Amino acid sequence: MATEAGAAAPLPRRRRLRLDLSTPALLGLPLGWLAVFFLVPIAIVAAYSFNVYSIDPGPHSFTLKAWHDFLHSPIYLKLFWKSVKMSLAVSAVVVVLAYPLAYFLALSGTKRKYVLLLLLIAPFLTSYLLRVLAWKVILGDQGVINSFLFWTGLRSPDHPVSQLLYSRFAVMLVLGYIWLPFVALPIFVSLESLDRRLLEAASDLGASRLQAFRRVTLPLSLPGIFAAFLFVFIPTLGEFVTPSLVGGASGYMYGNQIVDLFGTGFPDWETGSVLAIFLLGVVAVLTVAFARFLQPGQVATE
Amino acid sequence: MKTTGEGEREYRRSELLKLAAVAGGAVILGGPAALAKAAQEGATSESGRLQVLDWVGYGNDGGQSMFAQYVKTHPHNKPQFTHMTNESDALAKLRAGLKPDLFRPYVGWVKYFAESGLVQPWNPKLISNFKHLNPFMVKAGQQHGKQYGIPDDWGFDAILYRSDKVHPKARSWGLLFDERYKGRIAWFDDLEMLVIAGLYLKMAKPWHQTDEQLKRSQDLLIKKKHLVRLIWASESDLWQAFGSKELWIAYAWPNDWVQMKNKHLKVVYMRPKEKPIAWVGMFMLLKGTPRPHLAHAYVDAWSSAKSGKWLENNYGYGHANTVARPSSSALLKALQLTNPKAVTEPAAHLDRDIPRRAVYARMWEEVKAS
Amino acid sequence: MSDVALSPSGRWILRAFFALVVLFLYAPIVILLIFSFNSSPVPTFPLSGFTFHWYREFISNGELRGALETSAIIAALSSVGAVVLGILASLALTRRRFRGKSAVSALLLSPLVIPYIVFGISLLLLFHTIGVPRSLFTVVIGHIVISLPYTILVLVPRLDQIDASLEEAAFDLGASRLRTFRSITLPLILPAVLSAFLIAFTTSFDEYAVASFVVGPRVTFPIYLYSALRFPSQLPQVIAVAVVVLVLSLTVVIAAEVGRRIAERRLGTQ
Q1: In chain C, which stretches have pLDDT less than 50?
Q2: How many CB pairs under 8 A join A and B?
Q3: CA of C62 vs chain A CAs: smallest distance (Å)
Q4: B236 and C124: CB-CB below 8 Å?
Q5: Strand bridging mode B150-162 / B142-143
Q6: Residues of C in contact with A27 (CB under 8 A)
Q7: Contact C225 A129 (CB under 8 A)
């Protein structure tokens, strides 16, 4: 908008008078958009959590009550901790699995590395819900795995491999499945930018491949590992869709609690806001702590 | 945005006044016959599709027969549905700005919504089938002498179990807490579970527990939660899990029993000795709706004996229309359809208002989070 | 040449591992494909027969088609919006010096790390506060916020690659900044613009969490899917749709990537 206005203005052809594409004109729209539709909404949730603002009629004023209740409730914090543990486990496993994949693509010298990379990442770009659906079809007591076992006679229909679906295991398996391809990307980027001459130098100095890996490759790819870890950990920590579809009673996560407080539970938006802001705070702290690994170059394709 | 909203509201108000004037004039001039005609005229002056907020399975996803008559007479105002997961969800949606013409909470919420300022009473005179509706249920839909809820389907909260796998020690709600069936039990995702715990613990007023009682109910649920595989929120979740044999025991409604029988599972629908909780669906009319006459016509279609029979045959629920009878005598017996007081004492506990609903809700959320 | 990073046996093991993971990633998709042609409504072995029935059923399902259409509209609008904002922001980040650049870029990228559930609730409260009813556009607004950082991540490296002296030359020759952008910069970054558009489009088309809070009466495809997942009777139909959507999106993604490479090679990256 700003650019069009600038272009239409009948200005003399003098460089210093050009207003089009000036820095404020470039940044105005994107920053304005984020201010109105990103920062303000979050501020409203924060205000809600302190009861400064409420949709309930009647008087409301600043109070720490909801925060106090939350921080003194063993239940919510325990649930948060449970979700943290689940997300940590998923992120760790996924990073460990993705590292050799990225290593293979980046350092094996294969000619078709971009084709293979695309092959790896493509599932991530397809529907999230449909991939969850696939697992729902696969895991049930009458699902693909069990019916296959019955059919081949490896298992009697009276004794299916149970507890696959509607369990904490199911949630973690599906989350791992979903994030694995994506995680390989930042690790690949950091390994790709690694200077191979360093490895050659290490080799010339008599280091074995393992030593070179431990002393050179691994430390230099740590930024990629951290970035990858964070990119799985954050979204899985706030996850509510997968647990609600395959988690059952035991796979219930912190994100489900937030959704319930805003929806299907008797609406308690104040407590819900506290939970949301707390999650945001934790994520913000983590992000700042790892900020230097999150520069654009680290995650950009190629 | 605000100003157009207010303009709309005013427009609606003037429309309503006009309709009221038409209806009022008609009554004076010509009595009931003209009234029905006025309702028709009123309805035709209302435009747009009727907005219905209802549970899954009652709209175009399987419940079409319930309002077929309405669609026939109002082809230009076909209902458009938004799904509610439960009443809390509906409340959240209404608060968040959803503007349906009518919605369908259950009997325990009539008082809450009637006093919430979100709804307005119905005019039973515009519902030709109203006279056939079960008087106990009609009464349960009243608040401060006004008809806020029009009863429709009804049934029970009770226990569904597979008789080939499960051998209850007693006809009791305790089956939901039976240690022998760990990983095979399903609860319902609603604070009603605290009421059931209260019933099981033999409290005098499970709907109005003291803090100490609530704590006991909550402790029971938290202690037994490790037995539970699924806390179901929508019936189809339950059907999927029960039908694929993950579950053996569930808190369930009569329709779930019908559905599982259709899957050739050996299932029993057990009325616990602490008595089942009976529920009655209640259509409620939103305040400020621009389509009040269409809403009345829609509810009238739902209330007919024909719709009632279809509901009983296909969903296994009772219907408030006392003339409606299912084809199956087994269902007739199971639901005690011939007993006009099937939903109240001594046969069952009619679900009722929970004065401290927010406290219950919080404690139930804590059970799930534990 | 002896490889410093991998021994021959190590390479072999990694290759096998890679193949195994790819198998793991695609197997569920293939299983969906198989069952979409299975005549039994329940997805269990043994297979009961071949049918196109489920595909026909979903083609005649108006609600489902409506949801696909809604999602396509939302994805188109939001991806255009995100790409426009993304180009503006990326130009500022790569071609301008200004104070607080790192703070600005942190803000621009911050939607990447917000849990969508928190963002969804925040938007819901915002629209509620200012009295905007939920609709297709409320979803578009949210999706632009979500997609914006992705477009920046794609555009910034490409802008960095382009020799800025080309732009300077045009500028020195008297072209306006807008003209310089139109006739020099834009053609050079066009492949990146297209892939930014594609990423924004797929992000929006697939987004459930934020949409579930701010969607109006016209539901999006993921929201339709989520409720349909709960109906056993709709499962085979949904599986058929799943296959179509998965295959289509895989094709588009791969075609776009291949196209981008060819275009970039032709335009010459340095």
Answers
A1: 1, 270
A2: 86
A3: 20
A4: no
A5: unpaired
A6: 88-89, 92, 104
A7: yes
Please give the ipTM for the structure prediction: 0.88
Query: What CATH number matches the domain at B2-150+279-325, 3.40.50.2000, 3.40.190.10, 1.25.40.20, 3.30.565.10?
Result: 3.40.190.10
pLDDT band at B206 (very low <50, low <70, confident <90, very high): very high
What architecture is domain A66-299? Orthogonal Bundle (1.10)
CB contact under 8 A, B89 and A160: no
Measured between beta carbons, which residues in chain C are less than 8 angstroms from residue B83?
A: 227
Chain B contact present for A241, CB below 8 A: no
Window from A183-187, B201-205, C152-156, C164-168 with minimum mean pLDDT: C164-168
At residue B175 the predicted structure's pLDDT band, cuts being 50, 70 and 90, is: very high
Instruction: Verify whether the Cβ–Cβ distance C18 to A177 is below 8 Å.
Output: no
pLDDT at B18 over 70: no
- The reply to whether C22 touches chain A by the CB within 8 Å rule is yes
pLDDT digits (tens, 9 = 90+) for B82-132: 888 789 888 888 887 788 999 999 999 999 999 999 999 999 999 999 999
Contact C132 B1 (CB under 8 A): yes
Same fold, B2-150+279-325 and B155-278+345-369: yes
What pLDDT is recorded for position B345? 86
Q: How far is A28 from chain B (nearest CA, A)?
A: 24
Amino acid identity, position A246? V
Query: Which residues of chain A make contact with C144, given a CB cutoff of 8 A?
Result: 33, 37
Superfamily of domain B155-278+345-369: Periplasmic binding protein-like II (3.40.190.10)
Q: What is the pLDDT of residue B95?
A: 80
Which residues in chain B are closer than 8 Å to C124, comparing Cβ atoms?
Answer: 96
Q: What mean pLDDT value characterizes chain B?
A: 87
Residue B293 has a pLDDT of 95
